[in-house]
Each structure stands twice: as structure tokens, then as C-alpha cells.
Amino acid sequence: MMPQSLGVIGGKPNSAHYFIGYVGEELIYLDPHTTQPAVEPGDSGCLPDETFHCQHPPCRMSIAELDPSIAVGFFCNTEADFNDWCQQIKKVCVYR
Questions:
Q1: CA-CA distance, 30 to 32, in Å (whole number)?
Q2: What is the C-alpha to C-alpha distance for residues 61 and 35, in angstroms, rounded to an integer?
Q3: For residue 69, what are the CA distances in angstroms to 1, 15, 45?
Q4: The Peptidase C54 catalytic domain covers which part of the protein (predicted)?
């Protein structure tokens, strides 16, 4: 795993999930389809912290079921982080 990885967004046709890890041949995912009202900047009202947590436990899906259309997220906090990420990507890329 790359420390810069934020996860993968994808799933099956008509279904999207946020993949956060894997165990063997299974992907661990969260269902991002929980909504709540937006928080306005400077809003003095306090929202309970639990409203930002998952409503359901993580689920699993066979990697064989994953649709090939995915989005991969990375975050590099510093230039050194980015350089490290570049080196890691070079190790896993296959040049033809």
C-alpha cells in the first residue's frame, strides 16, 4: 500500500462504492450514499460528530466483480511525499 493512497471509487454497473482496503481476493468498501444538509461557514450551530461517521459497517466484494471503470485517489502533503509517490508508481508501472 502507498501511504499517499486515499482509496478507490468504483463498483459495479449502477452502483458506486468507496474502496478502502482488501483482504485476500475481497475488497473492503464503504457505501458513500448517505447525505445530510451542508454546513455553512461560520454557522454557530454544532453538529454532532457522529453525523460524519459511516451509518453502516464496511462491506466486502469479490475483486472479480469490480467494474474496470475506477478512480484512484492520492494525496501528497509535501514535495518529498510527491517524490516518494513518483518512485513508488515507477516500481509498479509496466512499460511496453
A1: 6
A2: 23
A3: 20, 12, 40
A4: 2-88
| Residue 6 near residue 30 (C-beta atoms within 8 A) | no
DSSP class of 92: H
**pLDDT at residue 39, rounded to an integer:** 74
* CA 65/CA 57 separation, integer angstroms: 20
CB 87 within 8 A of CB 2: no
Report the domain count for the chain: 1
pLDDT over 90 percentage in the chain: 45
Task: Determine, yes or no, domain membership for 83.
Answer: yes
Is 29 part of a structural domain of the chain? yes
Domain of residue 52, residue span? 5-36+47-92
Residue 42 lies in a domain: no
- Best CA proximity match to 60, nearest among 16, 25, 34: 25
Separation of CA 74 from chain center: 9
